[in-house]
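Please predict the structure of the following assembly.
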Amino acid sequence: MLEQQLQFSLRDEDQLSLDLIEAQYTLKNTRDRNNAKSLVILVSGIELAGKGEAVKQLREWVDPRYLHVKADIPRLFTEKQTFWQPYTRFIPAEGQIQVMFGNWYSDLLTTAMHVSKPLDETMFESYIECMRAYEQDLKNNHVDVIKVWFDLPWKALQKRLDDMDVSEQRWHKLHGLDWRNKKQYDTLQKLRQKFTDDWLVIDGENEVLRNQQFAQYILHALKQLPKHKTTVRTKWKQAAIPEALFNPSIEMMDAAAYKAELKKLTRKVSDALRTDSRNVIITFEGMDAAGKGGAIKRIVKKLDPREYEIHTIAAPEKFELRRPYMWRFWTKLTETHEITIFDRTWYGRVLVERVEGFAKQIEWQRAYEEINRFEKDLTDNQTILIKFWLAISKDEQETRFKAREAVPHKRFKITADDWRNRKRWDDYLNAAADMLARTNTEYAPWYVIANNDKYSARIQVLQAILKQLKVD
Amino acid sequence: MLEQQLQFSLRDEDQLSLDLIEAQYTLKNTRDRNNAKSLVILVSGIELAGKGEAVKQLREWVDPRYLHVKADIPRLFTEKQTFWQPYTRFIPAEGQIQVMFGNWYSDLLTTAMHVSKPLDETMFESYIECMRAYEQDLKNNHVDVIKVWFDLPWKALQKRLDDMDVSEQRWHKLHGLDWRNKKQYDTLQKLRQKFTDDWLVIDGENEVLRNQQFAQYILHALKQLPKHKTTVRTKWKQAAIPEALFNPSIEMMDAAAYKAELKKLTRKVSDALRTDSRNVIITFEGMDAAGKGGAIKRIVKKLDPREYEIHTIAAPEKFELRRPYMWRFWTKLTETHEITIFDRTWYGRVLVERVEGFAKQIEWQRAYEEINRFEKDLTDNQTILIKFWLAISKDEQETRFKAREAVPHKRFKITADDWRNRKRWDDYLNAAADMLARTNTEYAPWYVIANNDKYSARIQVLQAILKQLKVD
């Protein structure tokens, strides 16, 4: 049971309102600062227990301009979507508060209660574990999550159903289960108790107490401003740099062989991508001029642009910086595209952000696990993730840089930044080595394509895609 | 026929690529400046005419980080959505380029070709008119729209269908009509000719010419940087200020009568809102402290927060300022909520933005028509729009301001801004008078609730909602 449930007592409403508003403004002013946070409030519970009224009352006590309320009908989990995907758009920016009526837990309950295809216990518990891990990742990234369950005993619920207006009855039916069914009610209670131990459970019988308890809990949460740590104590264990990264092969392919092989493989790859019923995400990382753009061009060669989407990742924008680092990737994956290609990715966190110091020590060191969880969630939901690191030697990079500078319409590809990055070549190699060592998982393995020859590298990329899609 | 179709000749590819990249960078640098613009490229056409290839080629010639491509399957128009609603999220910010494969014209064609419920000719033409008006509004607000149709004669199309791979055939079928059906082809050609007179029509038979013609047209469009006008020549005709605005009645309602009436009406309003099958949007404008918050509270009294959404509108954020003024409202209306309430609205353009000089003369003077078109589109698509202006006298405002300042938890509602706005009382009255005169349409009438008594005003608001919903 949460501490707040014990300490609760009624307070003067005007004073409570004043405290809430002041806490809101304090939160708002943390934006862009080291104690910045935003607050997500998950609200679930028994129908008619008064969660709607409590939120409505809260809205009246606070400054409504800085409280966003999102409410929708619980949805069944679908095979191709992670539990967090429908909600990422609503993850608030630093300084903001977001109430989520529909949330991943209500979806979980709805899915588990769905008669024709219920979740088994192991699945249910594994979902809870993933959800808690996701919430922890949010918290680490300045988004605090608090959870409130509005409860109502069976008899009180039946009484409220009896007293209800006809139009309300119709509406409540749309949004929930059959609340006249005792067996369903009991199942629901049993299920929700598997996850509500870190929730505030509010008894919905007394209206005044209920609304105050809810508001006071939020006030309490608003006041907890974190002081984000920046360093870690444990010594970092740098992975050894695989030879492939600094000494790629130079197996050359001649133009004729390349052309023939390319023709065959681009066709095969497009067929494979097209017919695979899963979502496919193909990602590219590598030193500047390693050939990411050229490889992508060959993957999509035989596809129509309506069949895929390419995201070219640059530095984050201000509104993105005010949200968890992964947020801009979460939100890019809510579209319906079945084939998605990333030219640079979320691995920027442990590459450029680490090397350039944009991410603090604790942030990039934590990111490996965050990324692994993110990729696990995706691959658990009918998604194939194919990750490429394109490696070239330092000399080959110089040759390519100079070649780019010599060609007017390629000059835009090479900037002072690229030459500057090159000076930190060894730091990038170290970062890449750590990344490969820590994120090369069974469900999302890395393909290191280490070849100074462009032709050969492109062919290897296409072959790796076929391999990962299990097409021979 | 467009001028570009006549002037076309093949160019050196590298030079074309260089010019495109330079034009992209120039466009990018216009951001936040007086010649700012973004570019939307609508792409449609006959299947297999090569629009996909042309876009792919374009992507290779430009800097792909600054070219976004959105592609989806054409959708049928739905009763409750305007033609622009599925696309507003993709309207680019100043300096950006967005290709839209799926767009309002492809939806129109798909809807018109849909056999079970085809659009009649009048409807079809009326859609085209609305689309052109919408595009003109975009252009006036820094978003240039160019349109390209990829064409292919019947025989060439059949030949390409014959030569196609099996996996491609399957895919193309998903995304289009039956391209073996000559009658359908002819109908489509007849229909598209009703709107393609201001499109670039590209013959898809020759691949090289096709790709270059497309890219050159975009280069041409990128180079047209507007110099946005700020003033207008014609003298502005200020509307007379209706007496209700400055001299509202003070018909008082006693507390007991108010309570009884309120109870009856809140129930009636929630029933009416709930059972109406249309979307309902209720908007509030009025001087500070006119009672907008209090009125909204009573509307939602008997509703559950899952049934409605309230948007409290504050000053726009940076990323919103880089898009058309209406954009932040367009995007708020794509959610599925059937009851939406706005505490302040798009009328800010002709109220605060006009009075404070945030909008230039030409911008706010143009806004009345833009707003009328926007509201017409909504109400043509099963939406009821109920607009309130709450009027109080200048003295009453002062009384309320002072009362707010005296109560700690209401003090946040009153700021230096409010006192400053009060000094421009007459300017706001003039702006409100013009707004009422120019946007009081048959499809979206204004309700001016002019009463210094809060109780009476709230009751009038509820009655007006019932009246507009045709409930007695």
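Residues 69 and 99 of chain A are 5 Å apart (CA to CA). Residues 243-468 of chain A form a domain with the Rossmann fold fold (CATH 3.40.50.300).
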